[in-house]
Amino acid sequence: MPPSKRKARAAPKPAKKRVNTTTRATSQTPLPEAMDSSAPSQLLDNNNAVIDYDQLAAAIIRQQQQAATFSSPVEANPAPAASGSTNGECQPFINTLQQFFSGSQEICPMVGPTASNSTRSSTIHLSQSSMQLLKASVSTSTKQLYLRSYTLLHKFCAIQNVPFSLPFTEVLICNFIGDLFQQGYSPSTITSHVSAISYLHKLCNLPDPTHSFIVRKTIKGTHNLAKSGDIRLPITKSILIKLLSALHHTVQEADTRVFLSTIFLLAFHAFMRLGELVARSSVYNTKVIQRQDLLFLDDNSVQHILRHSKNMKDGQPIVLTLAANYINPQLCPIRALKTFTSLYQHKSGPLFTFKSGHPVNHSFVAAQLKHAI
Predict the structure, then answer these.
(1) Which of 31-35, 129-133, 299-303, 307-311 has the least mean pLDDT?
(2) Spatial CA neighbour of 208 closest among 180, 155, 154, 170
(3) Model pLDDT for residues 47-86, shown as the tens digit of each residue
(4) 373 in Cβ contact with 245 (< 8 Å)
(5) CATH 1.10.150.130 placement within the chain
(6) What CATH number was assigned to the domain covering residues 237-372?
(7) φ and ψ at 20, to 5 degrees?
(8) Is the pLDDT assigned to residue 160 strictly greater than 50?
(9) 301 has which bridge partners?
(10) May I ask the CATH architecture of the domain 89-225?
(11) C-alpha triplet 55, 56, 58: angle, nearest 5°
């Protein structure tokens, strides 16, 4: 074969190598799907069959940016989305909490006037009857205790410069428990405040952080480090006799000794709490036993009606009848009540009053009991 023909056929070889180089470059770095059909026209000059490396580099950079865009939101920031969702779920309950705690003497900062009008208009649409049932599930005293707990937590968050919003974290609750313990709160009181936080999360249908391991162990630590346990003892018959005898040494006024003895005997024989006999404040004067609710059936028995009690669930008054104790007249409640009503002849209002007519308060009786003990 003539040499000239061999040279003519060998001329296209460099172009083939460049095409193969293009194939190797594109196979090593895959291009986006949107560019597959147009890649030859974009990356090659048809006249010279040369790779446009600037466009190739730009395509690779765009592909890497697209991969980072699809992967980074899932891996980097899951928490803010969950937090915003949680706060949104809790917002509709603000109006419900306002209605639920309405009428209380204290103001709960969680449901105070700081909420916007748009927030208040977003309710969970509880009917009047269901809201009434929800209110009735918690006693007035428990509502006031819960509001007190929220107020303490709100002050703690303000001091620590942390947001006061649901849901509260386990660390915040543990630090709150530690702060209460440092202030001298008893373990039982701290547990009550934690229960209020738990109730609020359940009411807002949020996960309850107070049941976590670290919170429970922190509460357990308050019990272990408490200085002393509960030293209160139940009043037995022998202790009651000593108390009645001690009143002659601790109380000078005979009239005062009469109503104190009657209170002790009535509480002992009728299994009544001191708060059911005498009020802690004037607000509760109508909730203690009233004079018109005491009725002597005969010389041997007396009947009294208990209209308000901590454990009263159906709201129906409790009628109690006491019989005379002839074996030990010193401990007879009927005899004590007759002596008391002969000295204090008021016909209405709280049963136990001073000579001035003012109701006997809880703190006075508790102080006299402490002195007698």
Answers:
(1) 31-35
(2) 170
(3) 444 555 566 556 665 655 554 444 443 333 333 333 444 4
(4) no
(5) 89-225
(6) 1.10.443.10
(7) -65, -35
(8) yes
(9) 298, 323
(10) Orthogonal Bundle (1.10)
(11) 65
Instruction: Tell me: pLDDT of 5 over 60.
Output: no
Hunting for tokens 């209002």 — which residue is that?
A: 349
pLDDT over 90, % of the chain: 35
Task: Determine contact, residues 177/219, Cβ cutoff 8 Å.
Answer: yes
Q: Which residues lie closer than 8 Å to 365 by C-beta, 6 or more apart?
A: 260, 263, 274, 277, 278
| pLDDT bucket at 231, cuts 50 / 70 / 90 | low
Domain with CATH 1.10.443.10 in the chain: 237-372
Beta carbons within 8 Å of 50's beta carbon, 6+ residues apart: 18, 44
Q: Residue 300 — very low, low, confident or very high, per pLDDT cuts 50/70/90? A: confident
Q: Which two tokens stand for residue 287?
A: 């909730």
